[in-house]
Amino acid sequence: MRKPEVSGKNNSNINSKLRKGLWSPEEDDKLMNYMLNSGQGCWSDVARNAGLQRCGKSCRLRWINYLRPDLKRGAFSPQEEELIVHLHSLLGNRWSQIAARLPGRTDNEIKNFWNSTIKKRLKNLSSNTSPNGSESSYEPNKDLNMAGFTTSNTHQDQHADFMPMFNSSSPSPSMHATVLNSIIDRLPLLDHGLNMPASGGYFNGPGPCFSSQSGVDNKGFYLESGGVFGSVNIGAEGDMYVPPLESVSTTSDHNLKVESTCNTDTNNSYFDDINSIILNNCINKRTENRSGLENLFQEELTMGEWDLEELMKDVSSFPFLDFSNIQ
DNA sequence: AAAAGTTGCAACCGCCTAGCC
DNA sequence: AGGCTAGGCGGTTGCAACTTT
C-alpha cells in the first residue's frame, strides 16, 4: 500500500495537482456518489466532475477494484478457489477472463490471490511430492496443468504458457489450438458490470447486474447445483445466471492468439451440447472428489487427464467448428 | 518487548488496442 | 496513413499488518 501523495511531476500544472497513492475515505465518497448519480462516462471526465484530483485511470481502477457495489469482498470460497485453478489451467494468466467468470471478483483480486495463496500452496505441495523435494523445480502452471500446457514464467514466453504439449500421434498443434480456443470461447462468462454503458444503465437495479451483449444470442445458462457446472457454486448465492458467451481470443502480444473458427450465429443447441461436453470434461471430473483443495491439487499433479483426443472426437462433430482452414 | 522477516493486497506502471480525427 | 487519447490488461511495487525470532 502506498501513502497518499501528490504527484512529483513539476512540468505540468495538471499533473502536479494529481494525487497518487492510497485513496482517502473522502475521495471514495466523491467517486462513489458521482458514479451512483451520474454513471460512468469518460474516466477523465469522471475524475474532473467528481472533484477528484486523480487521473481517470486511477478512478477507473478504484471503482473497478474497490467501490463497485457488486463486489463480493472477503475470502475466496473453496469453490471459487477450485474454479480459479481450473480456469487458470485453461486460460493462463488472463486474469480479466478468469474474473469475468467469477461474479463479484476482480482481476486484481484473483491475481493477488493466485500469486500469494495458491502459488504458495502449490509450491508446498510440489516440494512435498517431488522426489528430491527441491523447491527450484517448482513451476506453478506446470504443476497445475491438467490440460498439459507447458509453461514459462518469463514475460516473453507467455505465448508458450498456452501451448499444449502434444505427443507424436496428436493432430497438429494448430488444430489443438483451435479446439482449445473454441473451448475457452464457450466457458461461461459473467459480465459483472466492467463494461458499463455510458448511459449509466448499470445502476438500474440493486445488486449484481449482468448485461446482455449485442450481436450474440441472449440465451445464456442457468446453472444449478450439480448441473452443467457440476457442483461448483459461486459464493453463498449458489446458483448463477450466466450471460451469453464471449470470445476470449485476443491479439495481444501477451497472449496466444488462436483464431476461433466458430460461427457466432450457431444454433443454440450446439452451444448447449458443446458446453456439456466441455464442462463435463474439464470441470465435472475435477469436482467429483470433494474432500478438499489438497486433494484437488494432488489430483492435478497426478492425473492431467484432460483428454484432447476425446475432446477432438466430441467437438469435431459440431459443424460450427470448421477445421478446413487450419494449416 | 523489540527487531526482523513475511504476507496480503491496493495501487501504479508500461504496454497494447480501438476509436477518433 | 499517422498521431492522439482513453480504456483495458498483466506485471510489479510498496507498505501496513501480521508473524516469527
Automatic annotation (TrEMBL):
- Domain annotation Myb-like: ranges: 15-67, 68-118
Q: What is this protein called?
A: Uncharacterized protein
Q: Which Pfam families match?
A: Myb_DNA-binding
Q: Which UniProt keywords apply?
A: Activator, DNA-binding, Nucleus, Repeat, Transcription, Transcription regulation
Entry-linked Gene3D superfamilies: Homeodomain-like
Task: Report residue spans for region: Disordered.
Answer: 124-154
Q: Which organism is it from?
A: Sphenostylis stenocarpa
Where is composition skewed (Low complexity) in this entry?
126-137
- The main location is nucleus
Q: Which GO terms describe its molecular function?
A: double-stranded DNA binding; sequence-specific DNA binding
Q: Does the keyword Chaperone apply?
A: no
A biological process term (GO) from this entry: positive regulation of DNA-templated transcription
Subcellular localization, per the record?
Nucleus
